[in-house]
Amino acid sequence: MSSTQDEFKLIRPKFINGIENMSTKINEIEDEDKFEHIYISDCIIENQIAYQVSFEGAVFKNVSFYDVALESLELTNVRFENCDLSNVDFKGAIIHRTEFINCKLMGINLSNATFQNVYVKQCKGEFAFMRFIQMKKVIFKDSLLENSDFQNSTLSKTKFYNCNLQSSQMSGTSLSGIDLSTSIVEGLGVRQQDIKGAIVSPMQAVDFSKLLGLVIKS
To answer: What is the mean predicted confidence (pLDDT) over 20-36?
Structure first.
């Protein structure tokens, strides 16, 4: 991840030396459990429902989550790599200094979550539910986000690089200062006031001009 093309620099997650040698398994997650400095790989975590669980300094690699609901989850200094988080329920999560690399995020519920210093790269996040989310210093790169829902959210210092946002919903979310110019935004659901100040390509400007009631004559 390079900061040369960004107006801000993400703070990346930090892990203790030799985290790869601290492999462990999670058999059961209970309310208010705290997991620190762990490395979890090549396994399935399933049928877990808990409240206010926290992970600090954790790496998940090649992990699949099935029927998992961790409301008010807290993630700090965490990396998910090649993981399947489809349809997990993380509503109300607080996520800081966390990376999602090459993960499946289809249908993930992150409503009312807080993101800060979060990096999402090469992920499949179709139908992700992120209403009322608060984002600050967040980068989405080379990711599929079709039909995702960002309605009524706050995006501050948030970037979308080469993402597919086709038919996603962002009504009630200000896109002022948000760079959409390299992403696919066909069918993006926004209001006129939402798109004001967004950074778009000339072709996108033609599409969004319909919101302004303009008729462009060739």
So the answer is: 93
Question: ∠11-15-20 over CA atoms, to 5°?
Answer: 140
Check residue 206 and give its pLDDT: 80
Between CA 144 and CA 6 the distance in angstroms is 20
Sequence spans of domains, the chain: 19-212
**Residues 6+ away with beta carbon under 8 Å from 149:** 127, 128, 129, 130, 131, 168, 169
89-113 confidence digits (pLDDT tens):
999 999 999 999 999 999 999 999 9
Domain covering 19-212 in this structure, CATH number: 2.160.20.80
Q: Are 119 and 1 in contact (CB under 8 A)?
A: yes
Taking the model in full, what pTM does it have? 0.92
